[in-house]
């Protein structure tokens, strides 16, 4: 799997299945089950480390889990989150830290934020580091946003999100994650850029879907958000649950309206 193939999937209208991954065992299982992209998400701050936000995750944590995942993967494309504080200061800071994640086995790095991140995206991409954007609910800004809530609900916020998506794409971002935005807005954004848009709580009309693996297996100790579906419910093994997830993403039976926001 590679970025070009993922962009061709979007062009063909084939949905992209993405799951988070933090270790070699689950990475190998997801890879075998047909997941095209594994995201080493800073959600590991919650799922692995037991924190209440992604803010305490360090670059060393992300390097370690990226190496673990890379060791388990044959085919899937690996994206690693840049953790809070590792890229916001300057493009140079972002490059230095992104280079460490790429050396650990990432094939793309993901950063949160819109137009403010445009120069950083361009700086990395021009120097050979593919970048995935992340808009909507950006968990590293949870204290600024006032909680884990739907974004882009009013007209101004919706217009700003669309503008941010275009700015990131124009700066050379190769992919975009949209988290907790109304389904209709996510559909518009997906149609407005040529790069794959991966949704989470963003409706069925994105170019692909991502879930946190502990959420979709029903094993997260905390409260899972409403956009999650537990794929373990009708499965007899973890591998089968992941296969069902891939199928549901491809045939657009997930996310259903009850997993989406109006
Ligand atoms: O950290 C993460 O798992 C993520 C996804 C939920 C998009 O950023
Ligand atoms: Na993340």
Provide the descriptors you would attach to this structure in a database record.
40% helix; magnesium ion binding; TIM Barrel; alpha/beta; binds sodium ion; 15% strand; eight-stranded parallel barrel; pantothenate biosynthesis; 11 helices; single chain; binds 3-methyl-2-oxobutanoic acid; globular; 262 residues
Question: What can be said about this structure in brief?
Answer:
It is an enzyme of class 2 (transferase). Helices cover 40% and strands 15% of the residues. By secondary structure, the protein is α/β, with parallel strands linked by helices.
Please give a structural write-up.
The structure is a single chain. By secondary structure, this protein is an alpha/beta fold. It has one domain (3-259): Alpha-Beta Barrel (TIM Barrel), CATH 3.20.20. The protein has eleven helices and eight strands. It has helices spanning 3-12, 24-32, 44-47, 59-72, 91-103, 118-126, 142-145, 155-170, 183-192, 213-216, 238-250; strands spanning 16-20, 37-40, 77-81, 108-112, 131-136, 175-179, 197-200, 208-211. The chain has an eight-stranded parallel barrel, surrounded by eight helices. Helix 9 (183-192) links the parallel strand 6 and strand 7 (197-200). The chain is globular. The mean pLDDT is 97. Sodium ion (NA) binds next to loops.
